[in-house]
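Figure 2 data, in text form.
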Amino acid sequence: MRAIQVSRYGGPEVLIPVDLPDPQAGEGEVIVRAEAVDTIYLETQIRGGWGEMFGVTPPYVPGGAAAGTVVSTGPGVSASWLGRQVVAGAGTRGSYAELVRAGVDRLVPVPDGLGLREAAGLAHDGVTAMGIIDGVGVKPGDRVLILGAAGGMGTLLVQLAHRLGAQVVGAARGADKLTLVRRLGADAVVDYSGDGWTDAVREALGGMSVDVLLDGVGGDLGSDAFPLVADGGRVSAHGAASGDFAKTDLQSAQARGIDLYGIADVQFEAPEMVQLASRALTEAVQGRIRPVIAREYPLSSAAEAHRAMEARAIPGKALLIP
């Protein structure tokens, strides 16, 4: 099969197309012929040197989710899975490939009416977005600030918070991304690429603080946003797209009664990941959310996809098509 391999830690150039033996399904496993492969920004960071944090060392096949068709089953797996369209996620590894081996307990059937590319676009970000919204308890009337609102997960958070009746302020960089965020349901949008963006958030909210901060960016932007949070508010600091997580004054948060959630709060066990993914697919097929798939690349062009993600060149998601 054709696959992409990370030959060593480094830039996008270390993503090399290779020929590898076809995987064989073991006990409780299936083989999925991938028709769309999910990409997330974290994969660029793992490739760049974070591998040891996630238990991978070069050479390895990157990727943690794909959507496609079950083409073979291993011992202990019902033959009824053959031919079914599924998302292989929830801890699946090595999905930058034509064939993906996955545990049957980690499969999510794709509901009728939802395309495989849309399903792939929800494989990671749908799980995390649903988990974040559940965890912080977004409710009608909440004032919600979303950093990285034009990213793959940010676009889902905007839609979910809007559907729940929150007042949503989406923060991103550049006019095109802000237009997208507004179209997805944000009540106000703010460009955080310049000075004074936090003042613009307050102005958009009529001088009010935010009840919920959903930080998918981290770094200085996340730290600068923290003072905008009201006493008794909730903060999910789940992202490090800037290169590091936001540094939060824990003593101040405790004194102000602010509940803090971090990356550990969106690390789910496989059964919960499958449940969250199934919910995300159901929300999508019923028209309540949609993944924003901005660009599709041939599998062999994975390096180009990583360059685009690192350059923040595209809103929403990029998919790889084997």
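Caption note: The mean pLDDT is 95.
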